[in-house]
Amino acid sequence: MVSAGHSAGVRSARDLRHELIAELYREGLPVAGIAQRAGVCVKTVRNVARRAGLPPRNPSQPERDGEILARYVAGEPVGSIAADCGVRPSRVRVVAARAGIPPRKGWQRLYPLDEYAFDEPTETGWWLIGLLAADGSIYEREHRVSLCQTLDDADVLHAFYEYVGCPERPLTLLNLSEAARARQFRRRPAAEARIFSKRIVEALARHGVVPGKTATLALGPEATRQPAVWLGLLDGDGSVGIYRDGREPRVRFSGTRRLMEQCEAFWRKTLPYSGPQPAATPHHKGLWQFSLCRMKARAAADTLLRSSQRSLRRKRAILAEIAAYRPDKVL
After folding, report:
1. Which among 99, 127, 129, 194 is placed 20 to 30 Å from 53, CA to CA?
2. Residues 132 and 71 in one domain
């Protein structure tokens, strides 16, 4: 027979455990983590929370669940959907299951992808590496590679999809919320090309395209030797122009100090030239720049145009004008 004192002790321990569960639940800890800490099952955690009058986790949100379902059906990775919608991956699977969508067993990509595209880049691949270094983003947790451009320049996004083997994949239009739009300067409509590949993320990292690269970007040794990489960087973060009635064409690169030092070293070896100028110099808010003018700009434009058949059309047109100048037309 169990004594009354012993029975009271058991109830007291249970009550303390339930109080702990309720406290951790209010603090927002994941249900699985609470269960592990309290030494109970997940179902017990939910029952304790319900009896304590606490709101259920992940209540039904038709609009959010509709987005989850649409993206799941479109073949996007569960981890990416969960991160964007603010839920756990298990919730994504629950939403899909409740809608009658079968679980992903033997799942294959909706749009095929060449996982080896950047292992040994072609000239187009090197150009894209430069463009991704300037305008791309890497999300390591999702193995996502993202490249954004205005719709006017969407041809480079299609070139990216074509190179990685999914030319039929649609672009993602970027629509800011009202609050975000109020914080932004007016801008032209933009789109994003995005792929998910651990192997491609690792390949790009070898060439210097890594997460959080904005303040520390430096290209890998092989990438610094490729003219097409500098063409891609120019398309993303550089500028080209013809000034003073055509007498002063200019090609200007922009980026981190280390990147611009690499840029200067490349052009000193490629053109070549001696003397202290042109050189990488500080520009604005921690950025540096490297500019080539007149005859050096003409020689650089010719080198860049020959490095890749694919590049940003509007800048390529100006580079072609610069390369066409004859020495007697440039003072």
Report:
1. 99
2. no
Backbone angles phi, psi at 12, to 5 degrees: -65, -45
Quote the number of domains for the chain. 4
Does the pTM exceed 0.90? Answer: no
Residue 196 shares a structural domain with residue 236: no
Long-range contacts of 318-323 (CB under 8 A, 24+ apart): 318/240, 318/241, 318/242, 319/240, 319/251, 321/242, 321/249, 322/240, 322/242, 322/249, 322/251, 322/297, 322/298, 323/298
Domain membership of residue 151 (yes or no) is: yes
Dihedral (CA of 155, 156, 162, 167) sign: negative
Full domain range(s) for residue 25: 9-51
* Cα–Cα distance, 240 to 105 (Å, whole number): 51
Helices and strands in the chain, H and E counts = 15, 8
- pLDDT, tens digit, for every residue of 291-330? 999 899 999 999 999 999 999 999 999 999 999 865 554 3
Quick one: 268 and 291 in the same domain?
Answer: yes
Please state, in angstroms and rounded to a whole number, the distance separating the CA atoms of residues 235 and 216. 19
CATH number of the domain encompassing residue 321: 3.10.28.10
